[in-house]
Specification:
Helix content: 40-55%
Largest sheet: 7 strands, parallel
CATH class: Alpha Beta
Strand content: 5-15%
CATH superfamily: NAD(P)-binding Rossmann-like Domain
Strand order of the largest sheet: 3-2-1-4-5-6-7
Number of strands: 7
CATH architecture: 3-Layer(aba) Sandwich
Number of helices: 8
Length: about 250
C-alpha cells in the first residue's frame, strides 16, 4: 500500500510480541516506516524480519538509550505499548523492585518517549500519540493495585496532554482494553499454560490484532476527529457489582 499522505513514520514500544507486534504488522501493512522498539530478544528480530520494521533494541527504562535510539527521528504516529505485570498479589506483599518496574515501564517510559517525540510533532503540527492503558485503570481489582495505579495515571496524563495541545492538530488516544490474550500474565501466573488455564480457556478474549484494528480506526478518522478514550472489552466481560466483607 502507498503510505498515508499525513502519517509516514511510526514508533511502537513493547513491539516484540502481543499487542505491540500486532500494531507493528498493521502499521507496516499501511505502508508506514515503522520503528519497533523492545528489549533485545529473538521475538523482536522475528517481528522485524516478518514486517520490514526497523528494530531498536532498547530497554524503555533507559532514558539515555531511548534518546540515542529515537531522539533524532520524526514520528507521525507513536504507540506507547510497553507494559509489565510481574506480580499478581496484594500491594503489601510487593517488594520495592516490582513497584519500581511497573512505574518505570508502564508510566515513566511513556512520558519519556512522549517528551522525545512531541517537539517535532508540534513543529510540524501533526501527529497521533496512543497510550495502552487498561480497564484496570478505571475499575481497580484486588491484587492489581500498582498496575491499576500506573494505568490510571497514564489516562490522567493523556487527558492533561490533550489540554496542553489544545489548538494543535495532534491527536491523543488512550486505549483501555479489557482481557486481551497476550503474554502479560505469564510470569505472574507461572507460565503461559497456567495463564491460559486461568484467564483464557473457554473464554473469547480480545486478541492483539483486534487492538491493532482499533488503532487503525482511530488513525482513519478525519483530521478534526480525535477518539480520545476507547474501551475495548470482550463481549462477555463486564465490570460492575459490589462485594462487602463483614465480620460475623
Amino acid at each position: 500500500m502507498i503510505a498515508d499522505p499525513i502519517f509516514e513514520k511510526a514508533l511502537v514500544t513493547g513491539a516484540s510480541r502481543g499487542i505491540g507486534a500486532a500494531v507493528v504488522r498493521s502499521l507496516c501493512s499501511r505502508g508506514l516506516e515503522v520503528h519497533a522498539l523492545a528489549r533485545n530478544d529473538d521475538d523482536l528480530q522475528s517481528v522485524a524480519a516478518e514486517t520490514g520494521a526497523q528494530p531498536h533494541k532498547v530497554d524503555v527504562r533507559d532514558v539515555d538509550a531511548l534518546r540515542s535510539a529515537i531522539g533524532d527521528l520524526e514520528f507521525d504516529v507513536v504507540v506507547n505499548n510497553a507494559g509489565v505485570l510481574p506480580r499478581v498479589e496484594p500491594f503489601f506483599e510487593h517488594h520495592g523492585d516490582a513497584i519500581d518496574l511497573m512505574v518505570d515501564v508502564n508510566l515513566r517510559a511513556a512520558l519519556q518517549v512522549t517528551s522525545l517525540v512531541l517537539p517535532g510533532m508540534i513543529e510540524r503540527d501533526r501527529g497521533h500519540i496512543f497510550y495502552l492503558g487498561s480497564i484496570a485503570g478505571r475499575h481497580p481489582t484486588p491484587n492489581l493495585t500498582i498496575y491499576s495505579a500506573t494505568k490510571a495515571a497514564l489516562h490522567a496524563f493523556a487527558e492533561g496532554l490533550r489540554a496542553d495541545l489544545l489548538g494543535s492538530n495532534i491527536r491523543v488516544t488512550v486505549l483501555m482494553p479489557g482481557r486481551v490474550e497476550t503474554r502479560l500474565y505469564d510470569g505472574a501466573l507461572g507460565g503461559h499454560d497456567a495463564a491460559e488455564q486461568t484467564l483464557y480457556r473457554d473464554f473469547d478474549a480480545v486478541q492483539p490484532h483486534d487492538i491493532s484494528a482499533v488503532v487503525n480506526t482511530a488513525l482513519d478518522m478525519p483530521p478534526h476527529v480525535d477518539l480520545t478514550t476507547i474501551e475495548v472489552m470482550p463481549t462477555k466481560q463486564v465490570y460492575g457489582g459490589i462485594s462487602i466483607a463483614k465480620n460475623i
